[in-house]
Amino acid sequence: MKIQKRVVTRLIKGGGLMSKKMYRVGLISTVICFGLLTTANHVLSAEKADVSKNATWGGGKGKEAGRDNFLGTCSPCHGESGRGDGPLSDTLGEGIKPRNLTDSKLLSTRTDEDLFNVIKNGGASRGFSEVMPSQKETFTDEDIRNIVLFIRGDLCKCQYKGEGGK
Asked: Does the pTM of the predicted model rise above 0.85?
């Protein structure tokens, strides 16, 4: 810090191009840019996470973070208990009902990757209703894995058992 002050003082006294105020603005800008780059790198590395064929993730914040994200974003349609009875469930269009995520018979035939992809890319991407929106702009891959953990652990209380659910 002493060296920086000496350099600034010499520049100012010697008629240099940089004033103290400009130096501070530049320093603050550099710190902010570095912080943004660090944050962006962290988010991008989370986006590149590998999704295996049938993983059960333990992820950073885990099931509790998944619960919070589910309640904040998914429960208006799926309901707080995941039964497909949220306050918006009757407003989605003729014959369209949100999936009952407590149906362990159905969900045990779906891999974690299937659930992950429906949440990330929306229902239409998997041949379901286009009313189920993509959440890739809302959640990181880790956030979505945590939602899958919550669905598996607290709503359906089931794991993937194969196509026939056995």
From this structure: no
